[in-house]
Design goal:
By secondary structure, the protein is mostly helical. It has twelve helices and no strands.
């Protein structure tokens, strides 16, 4: 999981029972927590691999996809790659913690501090990258529907560059020079030492949670226009396209909220109840995060994949009109099918985008 509180456990501790970290450890069952991390990260790795490796498709679908730029698939693969490496970091960390039975390094254990900080940076970096790839998928969906070109170089530069900057700055301030973040003399010094890493973690999550639903709402409105305008009609076929995409957008947002809202709640509780920390509540949230954070990869594999029913409905054939039955939209006056314009084709950007 990606949590700034767990990252502070990499610091040297004083052994003082009054330290907040020591109080939490006294009530924290590290073995069961690491087992949860181990199981969820293993499932996340499988979900990532399923997304990354191509799957055989029928020949007609291969032709259909060859017409497109495969832009959506490109972003999904890199999102899965980031999820894979993040889950690997959680897997390695929890495996070693299970073996050595010690999450917090001993006061003079520099090797454990170094290992813990490197694994924390690794996990934090790749999870931050998944948040940005999730954001860029929404941006590219909207651009695709508007008929605008993709920007892969820009996406890669930002999706890998910004996490590198935020992770290195946040953890450097926390760990350098001596990795002693539990024995800070003043509250203002503690804020300056710990707060940057919290901001580097929670601000990207909050941005995606706010921005992505707005982008997908705008994209849904653009889809309605793109589907209905060519021949000025909105039949059951066009409605199915719009409804399917709206459901897809909702599920993408729901998965992100399910996986990362506990982290945001944890951060809010820590900073609003710093002096009266609800330790048991925090530990429960940690277990939820340990399970849900790596599960993002598996849930993404479900919601980002192409939906087979839609593929079957919108297969390209010479006589596309014969593939659909329109008697569900009869004339309200005589109960008979009114004369209508030919079916409006699904816009190229929507028909070939990975969302379908």
């Amino acid at each position: 999981m990606s949590d700034p509180t767990i990252q502070t456990f990499c610091c040297h501790h004083t052994g003082n029972k009054e330290d907040l970290a020591i109080k939490i450890m006294d009530e924290f069952n590290t073995q069961s927590y690491n087992i949860v991390c181990l199981v969820s990260s293993s499932i996340g790795i499988l979900g990532s691999i399923y997304q990354i490796f191509p799957r055989r498709k029928p020949l007609n679908l291969q032709r259909m996809q060859s017409l497109s730029s495969k832009r959506g698939r490109h972003i999904i693969i890199w999102l899965a790659v980031a999820d894979l490496f993040a889950s690997l970091g959680v897997l390695v960390r929890s495996s070693l913690w299970l073996q050595y039975k010690n999450i917090m390094p001993m006061p003079n254990d520099d090797v454990s501090v170094l290992f813990c900080s490197i694994i924390s940076a690794w996990t934090q970096y790749f999870y931050t990258a998944t948040w940005f790839w999730t954001f860029f998928y929404a941006i590219d969906t909207w651009r695709s529907i508007k008929g605008q070109k993709t920007r892969p170089v820009l996406y890669h530069s930002l999706a890998w560059g910004i996490p590198a900057a935020t992770t290195s700055i946040g953890l450097s301030i926390l760990y350098i020079p001596n990795a002693r973040c539990h024995n800070i003399p003043s509250i203002s010094s503690a804020f300056l030492r710990i707060l940057p890493n919290y901001c580097a973690t929670y601000l990207p999550i909050a941005i995606v949670m706010v921005a992505n639903p707005i982008i997908y709402v705008l994209a849904s409105k653009n889809i309605e226009m793109a589907v209905a305008l060519p021949l000025a009609q909105f039949t059951s076929r066009e409605r199915r396209v719009v409804d399917t995409l709206r459901l897809k957008f909702f599920l993408i947002n729901a998965v992100f909220y399910i996986c990362w809202l506990p982290n945001l709640i944890n951060g809010i509780l820590l900073w609003t109840m710093w002096f009266k920390m609800p330790v048991k509540v925090i530990i429960i949230i940690w277990y939820i995060m340990a399970f849900l954070n790596p599960m993002q990869a598996l849930l993404n594999a479900m919601v980002y994949r192409k939906w087979t029913p839609v593929e079957k409905k919108f297969r390209p054939t010479p006589n596309l009109e014969k593939d659909f039955d329109f008697h569900d939209e009869q004339s309200p006056l005589l109960g008979s099918e009114p004369p209508r314009l030919p079916l409006s084709p699904i816009p190229h950007a929507i028909n070939n985008y990975e969302t379908l």
